[in-house]
Amino acid sequence: MDYSNRELADRLAAEYALGTLRGGARRRLQQLLPAHPTLAAAVWAWEARVHTLATPLVELQPRPQVWQQLQARLFGAPPRWWQRLGLWRGLSGLAVTAALALVVLQLQPPVAQPPLVVVLERTPDGNSLLPAGFVASVSADGRALVLKPLGLAQVAEGRALELWVVPDQAAPRSLGLVSGRDATTVLRGEILRGAKALAVSLEPAGGSPTGAPTGPIVSVGAI
Length: 223
Fold this sequence. Notes:
- Strands 5-4-7-8-1-2-3-6 form an 8-stranded antiparallel beta sheet, with no helix packed on it.
- Helix 1 packs parallel to helix 3 (37-54).
- 34% of the residues lie in helices and 24% in strands.
- The N and C termini lie far apart (84 Å).
- The chain has helices at residues 6-18, 23-32, 37-54, 64-75, 85-107, and strands at residues 116-122, 134-138, 144-149, 159-167, 173-178, 184-187, 195-204, 217-222.
């Protein structure tokens, strides 16, 4: 590498003086300086420039007339209320404070909402099947429901229990088959949309063939 090349020497010297030349490359350049005057001169020149930039500046307070002349040149008249530096600093401080408060609120976890619990009591038609009905727990976001029997439901072979959402002024919506022995979990969006009650009916083994309850309602609970 020709270190007498001024363009190459200047580039290496700039990286060295600015501190971007590091590690082995920096140590190698330091070893080369005594034998390469062009490179050494370039390093000296760049270090002088960087040293000048690092020299602290003396703060000077301009005379009031200077500010008045500057205001007149920029705005053509004495500064109005919206041109006052103090006001803009105050407004900027308020804006920063508001932004920080918003960030803090966004970082804080939302207050946990308790699940909705619905007790489905047995009906006269369900006396022979359910000893005590069901209890349903619906998550706060309405996307998960857990239905647990309060006892052991005796379902005959070829029959099944099906859970329904009963809206105020619409046909019941099926949430699928549920167990009479263990907890059943239902996952879907807006489970209780428009609902006024939950109900369990006795259906054929594969569920209602019509999309509506066909067997007796064995358990129901108001929301």
